[in-house]
Design goal:
- By secondary structure, the chain is mainly beta.
- It has a single domain (9-169), classed as Nucleic acid-binding proteins (OB fold (Dihydrolipoamide Acetyltransferase, E2P), Beta Barrel).
- It contains 3 helices and 7 strands.
- The chain has helices at residues 45-62, 81-84, 166-169; strands spanning 9-25, 33-41, 79-80, 94-101, 107-108, 126-138, 141-155.
- It has a 5-stranded mixed β-barrel with strand order 1-2-4-7-6.
- A hairpin with a 2-residue loop joins strand 6 (126-138) and strand 7.
- The radius of gyration is 19 Å and the shape is elongated.
Length: 180
């Protein structure tokens, strides 16, 4: 059991979206990073409150980065899916935030066994991620970011990438009849 005393770290049960846990991805030409958009139902008030508390702690821990006070225009990671992604059904009634890391996360199953088959973990499935919130001050941008730790897949969900399995797309073919 996790007896972590780091008040900026949270284990977040969520749905994975825009998941890049096997290969780092570059966003807008930036450094390639491993990342996930974590979708958290607004009804999961325990998790939402834990995230908000960790963000508040990260603010306190980062005041020195911002000249001794919390900036008025501080960028915060937790966003409202109903406001920021109203056209996306997966974000309806949910909060979300993006977490990333330069280091590859460990990806495990519900029994904490490593998942080796990359097709097993995808945007749309459900699980836990470990996240550490921290302050940044870079090129005039100041805010709180979410550092991605590890990923635990708990259950399958409808793919958010429009991808379907081969068994859903194809039927069996007798090779004697193929292209004849």
């Amino acid at each position: 059991m996790n007896t972590n005393t780091n008040k900026t770290k949270v284990i977040v049960p969520c749905r994975f979206s825009y998941l890049h846990c096997w290969e780092p991805d570059s966003v807008n030409g930036g450094d390639p990073k491993y990342s996930v958009s974590a979708i958290v139902p607004k009804s999961d008030t325990k998790t939402v409150e834990a995230i908000k508390a960790a963000i508040e702690q990260a603010k306190k821990d980062s005041v020195s980065k911002w000249g001794g006070k919390v900036p008025a225009n501080l960028k915060l990671p937790l966003r409202d899916g109903d406001l920021d992604r109203p056209e996306d059904e997966a974000y309806k009634g949910c909060y979300f935030f993006n977490a990333n890391s330069r280091q590859a996360p460990q990806v495990v199953d519900a029994k904490v066994k490593p998942i080796l088959d990359q097709s097993e973990v995808y945007s749309g499935c459900y699980g836990n991620i470990s996240v550490t919130f921290y302050g940044y001050n870079s090129n005039g941008n100041r805010g709180i970011a979410a550092g991605l730790g590890n990923i635990q897949k708990i259950k399958d969900g409808e793919s958010l990438g429009g991808r379907v399995s081969a068994t859903e797309e194809f039927g069996t073919v007798d090779d004697e009849d193929f292209l004849s």
